[in-house]
Amino acid sequence: MAEFAAAASAAGLASLGIQCCKGLTTYYNSYKAFDELIGAIHEQIQVLTALFKMLERVLSRNAANPSQASSLQQVDGILNKCWGRLQALQAFLETCQSVALPNSTAVLLQKIKARALFPFKEKTLLTLRENVQSLRDAIQLALNVLQLYVSALLNSAAILKLMLIVTWKWSKIKTLKA
Fold it and tell me: What's the confidence (pLDDT) of residue 1?
């Protein structure tokens, strides 16, 4: 039962992560060309989105497999540390969406360049970049743990298959000698 809770928790984090990243990507998409830092953060958010999607796919494939229980619990431990950062990212997105942007493109560009609006202030952007990098690193670690576990399972299966073949051939040799 714990493995299902771990899978549900990790899947919930992946789903919320995808939603949050899509919102931030949409929000900053129009402004990425105006500033190098905004463009870099936009790219990092897209990478994080891809990692969340990959995590979601891996978890959906392996959630029902009882042999994956220990790896899912280890991954859940890693991902539990992400919830705070992800909630901060979600709060940041909600704040961005609540900021009224000027109607005039010229005024908007001036404010972006002057970093006078909350979502474009350098300190705000640096904090966003730090949160995105931290989440990206944690999700990458979780995916690496899952990959190692799957590789170990595949190696174990290959060794077991090889042992069965050797045992079968050995039994055939014994019967031929007898």
Answer: 40
Query: Which residue matches tokens 């540390």?
Result: 81
Instruction: Give just the sign of the alpha carbon dihedral 130, 131, 132, 135.
Output: positive
Distance of CA 40 to the CA centre of its chain: 18
CA distance 39 to 175: 71
- The alpha carbon of residue 92 and the mean position of all alpha carbons in its chain are separated, in whole angstroms, by 18
Q: Which pTM was predicted? A: 0.70
Q: Is 116 helix (H, G, I), strand (E, B) or coil?
A: coil
| Contacts for 48 with CB less than 8 Å, ≥ 6 apart | 17, 21, 132, 135, 136, 139
Burial 71-98 (b: 16+ CB within 10 A, else e): bbebbbebbeebeebbebbbebbeebee
